[in-house]
Structures are given as C-alpha cells and as structure tokens.
Model the fold of this input.
Amino acid sequence: MHRSAPKKDINEDDLKVSEPAHAAAGLKAVMVSMERGFSQAGASRTLRSMLRVNQHGGFDCPGCAWPESITERRKPAEFCENGAKAIAEEASARTVTPEWFAQHSIEDLRDKTEYWLGSQGRITTPMIIHEGESHYQPISWAQAFSTIAEHVNATTSDRCVFYTSGRTANETAFMYQLLARSLGTNNLPDCSNMCHESSGTALNPTIGIGKGTVSLEDFEHTELIFVVGQNPGTNHPRMLSALSDARKRGARVVAINPLPEAGFFGFKDPQTVGGMLGKAEPVASDFLQIKVGGDLALFQAFGHLLLEEEKKNPGSVVDHEFIAQVTDGFDAYRAARATVDWEATEEATGLSREQITEIAQLLIKSKATIICWALGLTQQPHSVPTLKEIINLLLMQGNFGKPGAGACPVRGHSNVQGDRTMGIWEKPTEKLLASIDAEFGISSPRAHGYDSTETLHAFEKDEVDVFVSMGGNFALANSDTEALEAGMQRAKLTVHISTKPNRSHVVHGKTSLILPTLGRTDKDDKHPGGAQFLSVEDSMSVIKSTRGRLTPVSEHLLAEPVIVARMAQAILGEDHPVNWRAMAEDYDVIRDHIEKVLPGFENFNARVREKNGFVLPNPPRDTRSFATDIGKGRFTVSDFEALKAPEGHLILQTMRSHDQYNTTFYGLDDRYRGIKDGRRVILVNPEDLEQTGFKDRDLVDVISTFAGTERRANRFRLVSYPTAKGCVAAYYPEANALVHRDLVARESNTPGFKAMMVRFVEHTQQPGRTLDS
Done:
C-alpha cells in the first residue's frame, strides 16, 4: 500500500549535515527507488511502471533526456534513481480532489513549500478560482474551455502567452505552437529559455544546428571526454554508465566543475553484482575544480596551448584539411589565441598554469574528443562566447563527423529538445512559418514573441492578460521570484495544465484554471480508434514512441493533445481551417501534419513504430557539413571575460539537490553532498567562511548585488563545504529570488543562475519574501 501524503512541511531547523559521498548509485539507489515508488504508488503500480520505462513499447522516462542505445539490447532496468523518483511522483496513487481544495485556502497554500505541495498527489478534476475567492472549486471541462475562450477573445493575441515544459510530447508541442500561431502570436516561452538556450544560440551560427553532434555509440569510440559544468551523478545518472564504460576502454574523462560531485569519482553500477555490493568504478580520470564563470578563460587557454604545440610540430594537432575544406575564420581565431595572459587566466579559473597545461596535453594527443556540458556553462553572462570557444576547439581538431567525437550539450529534461524541433520557439524561422501556413491555410505572425525572461518583464508591466502553462511551474522556474509572482497575480487569467499542485497554482491570476492531464505513465485510450501513443526526442536526436500503461487515477483526466484541441475549438470556432478534432481523436493525423511541415520526419508514422524509432538528420555528424549562413563551420573570436565578485562578496551558483528534479522535490535527502532535511543552505568554502566572519551552521540572510540594486532572501544556513574558493552554491529555486531579471546571458537571454554576487548578513526579520515564511 502507498503511504498518504505528508502532513508536515519542511522544518529547516531539522537540517543534518554529514560528509559528502565519494561515489554514486549502487544498492542504496535501488533501495531508495523502490521505497519512493512503493510509498507513492504502491507495489503493483510501481513494478508495472518500472518494467515499462524506456523499454520498447513502453513509456519514455519523464526525467532526463539521456538516450538509450539503438544498437544494443535494453537492460531490464533501463532507468536511474531519479528517473524512478520521477515515475513514482507521476504514478502516485495519492489524489488531490475537490475536497482537498475545499480544505485548503489559497492563504493556507501560500505558506507551503513546493515539497509539500508536490507530495499531495495527482489532481483529479478541473478546478477554478475567481478574483476575490479563497478556494479553488470544481468546474466542468466544457465550462473551463469556455472560460479560456472568453478571456482570450476579450484581449489581443500579443497579450496572450503560451508557456511549455519539456515534459510535453512532440505531438502536443506541435499542436500547441499551432494554436498560438493560429491566434496570431509567437509568445511561446519554454523551459529551454532558462537552461540550454545559450547552447542553441552558440551552436546555430557556428555549426548550423542547435543540437549536439554525437550519438551514444560515439562514447564507445572516443579517446577523451570532457564533462563541464555538469553533475551527471544527480542530473543524468545513466550517463555514468557511458562514462565508466569509456574509462574501461581506455578513454580519459576530464570533469570540470566548481563542486567535487560524487558521480565524478565513483560509480557503483546497480546493473552489476559488483556495483550492488558496493564496488565503485572510476569515472573521471582528471578533475579541475574551476571557479564559477572561469570556463571561457580555460578554453581560450586550451586553444592557445594547442596552437603553440602545432607551431612546434606542424600537423600534429590542427586538422588543416578539414579546416580548409569546411570552415571559415581560422586565421582570425589563431591570431586571437596567439597569446594568453596567464595571471588573468589563473585568477579567472582558480587553476594553475601547470594544471591547465597538463589537461591541454590530453587534448593535443586525442584523435577523437567529445565535450559535454550543461547548465554550469549556459547560465553565465558570457555563456555564448564560452560555448563558441568549445566549438573552436572541436573545429580545430576536426572533431565533427567522425566516430567518438563532437559536441554534446546534455539536456536535463525529457523532450525539451523535441519541443524546440516541433516549433516551440519565440523566434521562429521564416521557413518554418511558411511551411505551417502552407499546410494549414493560416497566416502565422512573423514578429518575434516573448521568451521566458521577456515574459517576466511583460508580467511586471501588466502586458499579459492570459497565461497558459503546458506543464511546468513558471513562478518558481524563472528568476526574480518576487517580481514574477506579483506580475502573475495581476494577469486576468492563468491556466495551468498540470498533474500535481505547484507554486504557480497558488500565485495565480485574477481568474485561474487548473486542468488535470494524463502523464507519461498513464494509459491514453479514450479515443474512437482506441489507445494512442506519443513521441519524444532525446538528447541525441532519436525520435521514439512513448505509451503509458497505467490506469489513470481519475476518469476526469484528459490527454494533453485533447486539451489543446478543445482549447483551440473553443477559442477559434469550429469553422477554423485546422481540423483540431481529427488530431485529438487520432494522433497519427498529427504526425502526418508534422511530416509535411518539418524536415527529417518523412514517413513519420511508420518509422516511429520501428523498434528503436529513428534518428533525425544532423549534418555535422552525418556528412561533416555545416548549414550555417555561409555553408561552413565558423571559428569565432571572443574577448577574455570572467566573473569578478566585488569586495566582500562571493559568486553564487544555483544547483539541484539529489532529491529534486527542476522545481519538483522528491524528498529532502541530498545524500551525495551530505545535506538532509533542509534546503535553505549555502555551501561555502571553509577559507571563505572564515573570512566572512561567520561560522559553520550560522543562520544568515543573503543579499545579492546587481546593477546598483539588491535582492534579499532570508534565513539560509551556512555549511562549510569544499566548493571552489570564492564561490558558493545554493539550491534552485530557493535562491532564484536573488537573481535580478536583467542578469542574463547575452544573446540567449537565459537567467544568470550561475552568476550572482552575494554577501551575508546576520539573520534578522528584515523584509524579503522567502518560501517558508
């Protein structure tokens, strides 16, 4: 039997701190996975779901986007601990009924943390709250869609915003963007705006595609792997298998990160007897503990050292033939990297010249290099230049289109990449819009819409009347929490297509709807033609099917494509040129449209039914070609840049707990870092802690400084921890309130979650909204 939802919320006074772990996964991960499943969903639903996750004919894990092999047989347990937690959350037998909402007023819920809200269970019925009311109340689906239509048709399209979470499947995302463009807006912010937008912004102009250029099989042939600004042990645990196997085959794995994460040093493979018994396989052969924001300086130094070696031994490092045939700009790049300021580089990185030179030697010797990265690189003011420097290094050695080599941005959310492929983007290309218009007989808007940061600004200026959220938790996912929540509450209508309660439901618009939807694990069989399936795209451009098998917890849940179709019908009317009903009834119809609109989806319905799905075209990987505006791979030149904290300040980065997935908290045990039963903590290097005048476990308020203004977040506990000197770390989203909305990555507009300048003051009762006060 599953356990009932917790009655108590987080009590930060219960914080427990122990020594950080030195290895990830193992028997403990298996035990935690099963315990979380049984407590949420019960034994039967847990076991039925675990046997189906990431299997042929089963459902794609709602967690990360790490791929499965398309050449090897699937393992019986093709999931990780955090994937199991994500499944347990979705397969939960706990329910949030109209009676639950009747018992909990908005004022009551505003004091609850995201952990408590998310632990209550699956929402069973559409709910609504009007201005001045204290409680959500049930509403019929027909009335809900009528309410949405009334509000949308009472305003203009530019004052409507359609937000998307990466949990959304391809077919839903395609319909969702079609709805927005049918209305006349490109206001399509999504969660990728807040994570890997910098990756696409750097990759598109340099290699002609905004995605990675490797396959999982490349990890079997590589000589050198960089894992930069990334914590695979918590955020992509199945990646540890690929890294560990590469080490066994003789590859070097270099981890570059401000925190010494457990997954870098050891992996107890739960698929093996040795791993279950506690034997840890090595993962990283080398670890560089870099300062936050120092990666640009590091990769510029690598470029310099590689070119210096090429001078000494011509032809030993640089792939001149590749550069001459398919790239542009190498001479300017070589000139820019002719010198390096070692004093500035050591200051920016926190690394010695000797450490940097030693790792550069690995690059010099490697004939096949993969460079992986995640949010540690994408959420800096200079993120885009940093990623372009990575591309420079890969181009210089011809590390595209050959086995074991390429760029590997590791997406942290299942199908966030697929949503972009489907057209969820506020800056669509003319080619995409023309193709949509030709297929459906509509006139898509050409003006760019809002991204996530621009949506925050629009909320603040009262320029949003209707906000529709397809999954996700926008209030907590974005920066400048206090300003964002205040703006959301001034909107005329907020619509949340959700599975479970979250903070965005609490800081709602004047009228707010919660529309409960099926999840990945749920059976979707209420259609004239029987059960339907959807598709997703993983981090390596593989399109595969996903089909839930569990009986939904309520008969009132609707599938996401059905919700989009019925919204569209209510808003646009039955005489609209798009046949929304046909798509809602038969998802093959959606895929037929996708095939005609998007390149690479030829014969979509047949290929998605193949055992391993199919791989989308990727010119750099497939043909060593680059679809940039000049038809070549582009070397770029960026100025030296690094983060420098003002006197008396430290550089703060946000991070996930091991018991967390984005804004969803599975529990309160960040066991790899030794933090338990508390989340409002700041991890501080012992030397920095001494210099601040505070002691380990002191209670402080945190003040961030940006552009002459300050943000304050109260009641954080300092924890002595081996972070990079000058750098501190705190959990997301508790620290989001400290990020000024204008602190963003240039070009991509991604919030600067890894670039806050903070100082500590003794905790007082000064104003400053916190999630637990």
Notes: Residues 15 and 678 are 5 Å apart (CA to CA). The longest helix spans residues 27-50. The longest strand covers residues 709-720.
